Amino acid sequence: MNDGVIKLIKSSDFELEDSTTKLKELKGARGIIINRSDNVALLKKGTEYKLPGLTTDEDISDIGDRFVKNAYKELDADIEIVKDLGVLIEENGVDGVRVTNNVFICSVINNSKLNKVENSGYEVIWVSPEEALQLLSSYKKGVMATDDVCDKFCSTRDEFILRYYLINFKY
């Protein structure tokens, strides 16, 4: 695993106070999942868009393996990790958690459906990386006008990950 930190997102980034107490440690994984048409997967619910991923408080020895299994459930697709981009850390002092996310570039090996609605109500959409960035950025802009701290972290995280990919790996 690549332990290099590519980004630290803190409560103060949103003009909120950082926690002065110990934060609960969580593990996470997020991925840019690319299909054979060079489109990336986004999960969509209403006007919300996010990258596939997971967050857990379980002690996981191989977060990459867990991410691959989770992606199968979310996307109905077999994927493989092509590159480990490093770690993105979210220090959410308002909710008292610190999420250490491993970030991956993945490719689809096999998928039986292009779109699927999960039990959680998210629809899988496949769009160009540039369109995905527009959708994530537009969603983030709307979220920043709200009081939803978790969505502020998530939208900032996902927009950064996709922008990082486009700048460093797409071209």
Give a short summary of the structure:
By secondary structure, the protein is an alpha/beta fold. It has helices at 63-75, 129-144, 149-170; strands spanning 5-10, 24-34, 40-45, 48-50, 53-56, 77-92, 97-111, 123-127.
Describe this structure in words.
The protein is α/β, with parallel strands linked by helices. The protein has three helices and eight strands, in the order βββββαβββαα. It has helices spanning 63-75, 129-144, 149-170, and strands spanning 5-10, 24-34, 40-45, 48-50, 53-56, 77-92, 97-111, 123-127. Helix 2 (129-144) runs antiparallel to helix 3 (149-170).
Please give the count of helices. 3
SSE sequence, one letter per element: EEEEEHEEEHH
> Percentage of helical residues?
25-40%
Main β-sheet, in a few words?
Answer: 5 strands, mixed
**In oligomeric terms, what are we looking at?**
single chain
Estimated radius of gyration: 15 Å
Gap between N and C termini, in Å? 24 Å
Low-confidence stretches: none
Secondary-structure-derived class? alpha/beta
Give the rounded overall mean pLDDT. Answer: 91
Side by side, the strands of the main sheet go 1-6-7-2-5
Coarse shape: globular
Number of strands: 8
Could you tell me the strand content as a percent range? 35-45%
